[in-house]
């Protein structure tokens, strides 16, 4: 019985944290630290220039993570704000993923240009009897261009995971990692940057 009460209290805390002050803005720390496990390194690749990611979500402030929702999943006017622009956090994660994969980027001589657009960042909370499951989702459009500005690869990748963390630093980093893994394990992308 005590365990059930404890689970209910934890669920109530998470729901109230994510829905409280739904009309105000609050700064949240994502504290992204990559935890990627990349086993297959790319032996060689063309030089890739990373352009700054563009935020296509239509928000005035690029630090907006997403809008708050009430307990009925209705979007409110309050927002969760990151400490830095979300696109910068994602681009730093992508740089780390390319480095871990062995892809050469942002050198003096680049053969290819990687462009990216943040299309969607949202989170869904699914409540069970005594628990809540957080499902963050990050959608980014990528384009790889050659040095003649011809698109040689494009895709829309989604980083989406099921987590049980109640804070941004628990449920956002796994979604970021999932997005980066989708990029560095995308065979068409790897074929396009391979020197072979």
Automatic annotation (TrEMBL):
Extent of the signal sequence:
1-22
- Give the keywords, sorted: Signal
- What is the protein name given in its UniProt record? DUF4136 domain-containing protein
Task: Give the source species.
Answer: Flectobacillus longus
